[in-house]
Design goal:
Length: 261
């Protein structure tokens, strides 16, 4: 049995705190806020009344005031529906469940654009933002894995898994390094690739260690040789300026091998 004047329990959110709906003063049964937008709009009509003695001009003024009041009510309703339709009283937003902290923060920064789009259009925008962030993160992880010595998707996957466990504080996983990741990969053999028969055993071993194809190796050798002959390449730094799109360390090894011949 409820006693007279007993306060109803306050609604709590998932974390045990006072819910955003409770803090905003929204009454779901009435579909209204305790303090609405333009809450003083009714003051415009507080002392107004229509009398039989009103002149036509006075009546027109009062009708005009009613039109202004109706517009203010329409704006109040539009803003209330905007909040309810987009679940702005839900904390956390159902859309953000399953997202990382960085993705959630990015989605919240785009809330200012809600008023320009429908709910579906805004969700499509957020989905594209999240997809972009995940693709960029995947590219960054793969670049780091490649810099660590990974040359296959399997090795890159192991590297990324070890890195993720390390970031999560899992002490049982060893921090990935170039040596232990590259050591897990299978030996890369250039035998059977076009141009391999033109290379010496030393050059084949170099290609296998650097993981480049024989034809690519010979193209780099030819480009550097032509630069040396023309006088445009006098040292390794000059060779780095060539548009070879190869790791500078590999260019250094090929340059040293060419000079040693």
């Amino acid at each position: 049995d409820r006693t007279v004047g007993e306060k109803r329990p306050r609604a709590l959110d998932e974390e045990g705190g006072v819910s955003l709906k409770e803090l905003s003063g929204y009454n779901s049964k009435r579909g209204e806020f305790e303090i609405e937008y333009d809450n003083d709009a009714e003051h415009l009509l507080a002392d107004m009344e229509f009398r039989d003695t009103d002149s036509k001009a006075e009546r027109n003024v009062k009708l005009q005031i009613l039109k202004i009041y109706a517009k203010r009510l329409d704006e109040r309703k539009r803003r209330r529906n905007f909040i309810l339709d987009r679940n702005l009283l839900s904390c956390p937003d159902p859309f953000e469940r399953g997202l990382t902290r960085e993705e959630q923060e990015a989605c919240r920064q785009y809330r200012v654009f809600m008023r320009f789009n429908s709910l579906e259009e805004h969700r499509d925008l957020l989905n594209s933002i999240v997809d972009h962030m995940r693709i960029a993160k995947r590219i960054q992880d793969l670049q780091e894995a490649r810099a660590a010595g990974c040359r296959t998707s399997a090795a890159a996957g192991r590297y990324i898994d070890q890195k993720t466990k390390g970031e999560n504080g899992d002490d049982s996983s060893q921090k990935p390094t170039r040596q232990n990741v590259a050591g897990e990969e299978e030996r890369w053999c250039v035998a059977g690739f076009p141009g391999a028969e033109l290379l010496s055993e030393t050059e084949k071993e170099m290609c296998e260690e650097m993981r480049i194809l024989p034809t690519h190796y010979m193209d780099i050798m030819e480009t550097i040789s032509m630069g040396i002959i023309k006088g445009s390449i006098t040292d390794k730094d000059d060779a780095h300026l060539l548009p070879l799109h190869v790791d500078p360390n590999k260019i250094d090894r090929i340059y040293d091998a060419l000079i040693a011949k």
